[in-house]
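Onboarding guide, step 5: your first structure request.
Type a short instruction followed by the sequence, for example:

Predict the 3D structure of this protein.
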Amino acid sequence: MTTERPTPPVRADERETLRTYLDFHRATLAMKTDGLCDEDLRRQASPPSTLSLLGLVRHMAEVERTWFRRVINGEDIPLVWSADGDFQVAYDASTATRAEAFDAWQTEVAHARRIEREAASLDVTGYQPRWGEHVSLRLVMLHLIHEYARHNGHADFLREAIDGTVGP
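The system replies with structure tokens like these:
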């Protein structure tokens, strides 16, 4: 499996720029998992941290689901791995598989892309109950870029600790 990343535009409108940067970071997370078996993906490779690459993929499925489906689309749905709304559950990938985690993540990314494309503008808002605020689609996309960038940094360290692979 080889993941390809889109090249972010140097001249595009705001929406296309945000969309492409978000897809760039999504692809980066996938790249960090390329060629690894389930055992490696579950490995907590940077003690004392309990993070694993598979845990990060599961977490990002929850993040996509929450911000696009629950906040922007107003869907009354539970988290993928916790009916109680505990985001930490996703990080526990001790019994997870690539197939299970990536299916959930790719499903949520597909929903997120659909919701973003169907939105009339970046000014569309949804309610974020944790903040007690209405937030724009623009903020959601920026927040996800931030989340992916931060967690992709974690993924860099985890991947290097697993097999020495470094890079993009």
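Each response can be followed by summary notes, for example: Helices lie at 14-31, 38-42, 53-72, 98-118, 137-163.
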